[in-house]
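*** Fold description ***
***
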Amino acid sequence: MSSNAITIFLLFLNISIFPAISALNQEGHSLLSWLSTFNSSFSSTFFSTWDPSHQNPCKWDYVGCSSNGFVSEIIITSVNLPTGFPTQLLSFNHLTTLVLSNGNLTGEIPRSIGNLSSLSTLDLSFNSLTGDIPAEIGRLSQLQLLALNTNSLHGEIPKEIGNCSRLRQLELFDNQLSGKIPAEIGQLLALETFRAGGNPGIYGQIPMQISNCKGLLFLGLADTGISGEIPSSLGELKHLETLSVYTANLTGSIPAEIGNCSALENLYLYENQLSGNVPDELASLTNLKKLLLWQNNLTGSIPDALGNCLALEVIDLSMNFLSGQIPGSLANLVGLEELLLSENYLSGEIPPFVGNFFGLKQLELDNNRFTGDIPPAIGQLKELSLFFAWQNQLHGSIPAELARCEKLQALDLSHNFLNGSIPHYLFHLKNLTQLLLISNRLSGEIPPDIGYCIGLIRLRLGSNYFSGRIPSEIGLLHQLSFLELSDNQFTGEIPPEIGNCTQLEMVDLHNNRLHGTIPTSVEFLVSLNVLDLSKNSIAGSVPENLRMLTSLNKLVISENYITGSIPKSLGLCRDLQLLDMSSNRLTGSIPDEIGRLQGLDILLNLSRNSLTGPIPESFANLSKLSNLDLSYNMLTGTLTVLGSLDNLVSLNVSYNNFSGLLPDTKFFHDLPDSVYAGNQELCINRNKCHIDGSHHGKNTRNLVLSTLLSVTVTLLIVLLGGLLFIRIRGAYFGRKDEDNLEWDFTPFQKLNFTVNDILTKLSDSNIVGKGVSGIVYRVEAPMKQVIAVKRLWPLKNGEVPERDLFSAENVQEFRIQSQVLMGTSPQNTDTVSE
């Protein structure tokens, strides 16, 4: 038994045996009773001062008493309380403050909480409470602070809260509450803070009655389902400092009356569906510090009036439909720290006065229509950490003055028309982690100074006109994770020092003029996900040590001069999703190990090489593969193994030496013939080619045709001689037996005609031959197909059927014979008997 348990046991023993000696009052006993519910946990050690020998608990930690010795406050914060709400305290009639926050309390708030009539502060925040907010809280007429935030409470906000007329602070955010905000909130005339955000289930409009709370300082309804327009009556809240209703469903325009909230410091209305202009009336908000209206549907221009809001520190109007130029009045905002205007339709030049925002930390102008040069004055921004101006129409060179922004961490000027070279001092910025200059007209060489930029994580210079060698100093960038130099004119070899960049996740060097071999040092890039070296002049073989790149999911080395065989060790790169080795000079067979890359789901392209041998049987494991291209090789064998690849959406096996039948699946039947072209022995249509395993098909066909011709002549002579006898016999027996014939139709392939289509054509005029087992007819089906039909004689009672001349072992002979008799081509003949 733990020491705390023994203590509590002795306490009750003492009370029972020596009641006169024990002086602890009832409130102390109640507290100890609550403590006993978790006395076996480590948390009980925080309550070592709770001594049962005391007369009252007034000297215990976390407990405060009034002058008459009754418990008036209990404040326990950040102590793990593995228990439920302390119902033992509900009889504390003098309790004014109950704070049990960040304690992991569970269970529900008891409805008898309304009995604590003296309570002015109830803080149960940051726990794991569940259930509803009890309506009985409305009985707490002295309550001034109610903090139930950051629990798992659900249900609606009880309208009875409106009875707590002295309530100043109402914190209900980050729960699972639902329903509408009760209009009774407007009865809380003393309310200063109302926060109910982080409850996605709350919906409906902001109640107009909230404007009755004239002393309101903070209104927070962010991350809810609040909808409708912002009530213009909010303009009556002269003391409002923060209006936070972001990530909701607000519509309509921002009411001009907001300009009457003269104390407003923070206006957070981003991620809604607000429309219209940014109101000029915001000019009256001289205390405004943060204006966050991003991701709405705002139109018009940035109002000049914003220049009057001299206290502004953050302006975020990005992801709207604003147009026009940046107003010159913004030059007055010398305290600006963040200017975020990305993803609009702003035009004109970047104003040089931006360089006067000496405290500016973030400047985001990307995805607009800015033109002209980047102003060198930006180099004066000593606090600037982020500058984005990508996807504009900027011209000129990158100003060397940017190298003076010593705290710059991220620079993205991609997708513009910038020219010239990269200022080499830019690589002396020790804090630079991201340099993105994709898709410009930049030229020149990457200077060796890049080795000084030791904090660089992302270097993306693709789609420019850079030339020269990739500097070996790039190996000094030990933090580098993204290296993209694609679509340039780099020459020389890939520096082996790249193996020192062990944090690399992506290396994209495609479409340059690189030569040499793939450096063996890539084996040290164990975090690599993407390696793209395609469209260069790289030679040599694929390094065996690529097997070390076990995180690789995209390997593209196509359109080079790589020779040798595909290494079996690639089978160890089990995360590969895309493998493209096309348009090289690879030889040998496809290793079985490639078929064991079961994660390969995007693409396997081995086309335009000199690969030989069959498709490995292990390819049946590539069940996730979507695109397969084996064209322009010298592969042999059949395509049977591919028939089980159910996820294929694209296939090309053209210009190989494949043979045999196609897999009998809808996917293979629906593919155009072009994907099979150049495979002379491949049977694309089962009904138009004959696979019998013989290599002397033409000779055999000629022999059969000659034999059949002789037989045909003989049969015609015999038929003419016996014609009269047959007709007499047929007239007598045919009609007698005709009505008793039953047709047995067994198709062995898909047919586009029915039995009825055939029966109506079985007339004497269509007879082409008779034998001991039946009559053969020439019939033209509705789709103009000419077919041969054999009608068997009925068996006599007890008669054993003779072996049919057109049985399965002679089906090929029958097909040829019927074609000869009818003068049809083999490609257009089907038979009912198959």
User: Anything to note?
Assistant: Residues 1-21, 691-711, 724-752, 795-834 have pLDDT under 50 and may be disordered. The helical segments are 3-17, 26-35, 666-670, 697-738, 755-759, 811-822. Residues 84 and 106 are 5 Å apart (CA to CA).
